[in-house]
Amino acid sequence: NVTMEEHENKEMTAQESLSLISEMLNNSRRIILQNNAKHFMLWGILLTVTSLVIYELWHITGSPVWNCAWFAMPALGFPIVRILDRKNTDVPQNVINKQLGLIWLTYCIFAVSISVIAMLAVPMNISLVIVVLLGFAESISGFLLKNWAITLGGFILGIGGAVFASMVHNEAQLLIFTFGGIILVVTGLIIKFQYK
Q1: Smallest Cα–Cα separation from 69: which of 42, 43, 51?
Q2: CA angle (107 as vertex; 102, 111 as ends), nearest 5
């Protein structure tokens, strides 16, 4: 039989265990945020540069065919991410990190699929759809990581981008992604300084 004192000690141990698990998750979240600050800045810079280059080429030539250059962005970005991540052996591989990866993988699959469908079969306002998806993915990431800067940046990007995409046409819509890139860089900088 378990005495009352032994039972209370087991409860304390269970509470201590929960406290320890909570502390470990918070530490993991902090390390993941520190690592992801670089990712936000990298993708923000790539998004800003790519959107400005495509905007300028479309503006000069009058041809939207330059939108195909968007596919160069992940071709360049993913290898850079792999190089950056190779140096970070202290980033925990846990549920939070895996869910974060799945959020952004899902965003990429949706963005590429919708772009291809819009180019080949069903014309639509791709900029509006992709900027909403991007804002949504960023906001969900912020909620998962319990970080206000990421969440707020996602809302500003998704909602503001949708309004802008509805108001402008042709190559001017690409400036949504220039703005989005700037938001990603600023988000990365906030995280970097927040978690020094």
Answers
A1: 51
A2: 150
Classify burial at 78, counting beta carbons within 10 Å of its beta carbon; exposed 0-12, middle 13-18, buried 19 or more.
Answer: exposed
> If we measure between CA atoms, which residue out of 140, 146, 139, 189 comes closest to residue 160?
139
Alpha helices in the chain (DSSP H): 4-61, 72-86, 95-120, 126-145, 148-155, 161-167, 175-194
Please state whether the predicted TM-score (pTM) of the whole model is above 0.90. no
Condensed to tens digits (0 to 9), the pLDDT of residues 13-43 reads 777 777 877 787 777 777 777 778 888 999 9
- Take residue 40 and report the two structure tokens written for it: 């936000």
Residue listed under structure tokens 């291809």: 116
- How many whole angstroms separate alpha carbon 119 and alpha carbon 147? 36
Does residue 102 contact residue 126 with C-beta atoms inside 8 Å? no
pLDDT digits (tens, 9 = 90+) for 89-123: 666 677 777 898 899 999 999 999 999 999 899 99
Within 13 Å and on the Cβ side, how many CA atoms surround 167?
A: 8
| Residue 55 CB contacts under 8 Å (≥ 6 apart), including other chains | 171, 172, 174, 175, 178
Of 101, 185, 107, the C-alpha closest to 150 is: 185
Closest CA to 64 of 109, 112, 123, 113: 123
